[in-house]
Amino acid sequence: MTTTLAHPTRDEIRIAAVLQALADPVRLQIVRELAVHEEGISCGLLPLGVSASTLTHHVRTLREAGVVWVRPQGTSRISSLRRDDLDALYPGLLDGILAARR
How far is residue 42's CA from residue 80's CA, in Å, rounded to a whole number? Predict the structure, then answer.
């Protein structure tokens, strides 16, 4: 899997897209899990209880909004949180979301 995926640059990330991406409970759970796995993880390893196609959709939505980086690694895709970019653009946003009650 050598396909490079498109990601918005820091300047292209918009708060409306970020908030819309984070409004879904599954995507919010993905972000919470990625915050724990700072080095990144294949989202297929996370116990989310959704089908592979649904998971792919959610990760794509997070990537297109600028919330996560997705990079190929062998036959997997490793996702990681774009904390530096989000903290620079919207200070405290991720901390508040991650601290909120589930």
Answer: 9
Q: pLDDT of 5-37, one tens digit each?
A: 899 999 999 999 999 999 999 999 999 999 998
Over the stretch 54-75, which tens digit does the pLDDT of each residue have?
Answer: 888 999 999 999 999 999 888 8
Instruction: List Cβ neighbours of 100 (8 Å cut-off, separation of 6 or more).
Output: none
- Where would I find the beta strands (DSSP E) of 22-93? 41-42, 68-73, 76-81
Residue type, 95: D
Beta bridge partners of 78: 42, 71
Rounded Cα gap, residues 93 and 97, in angstroms: 6
The residue type at 37 = H
Q: Which residue is listed with tokens 């050598």?
A: 2
- Sequence-ordered list of residues with C-beta below 8 angstroms from that of 73, at least 6 positions apart, any chain: 42
The domain defined by 10-99 folds into: Arc Repressor Mutant, subunit A (1.10.10)
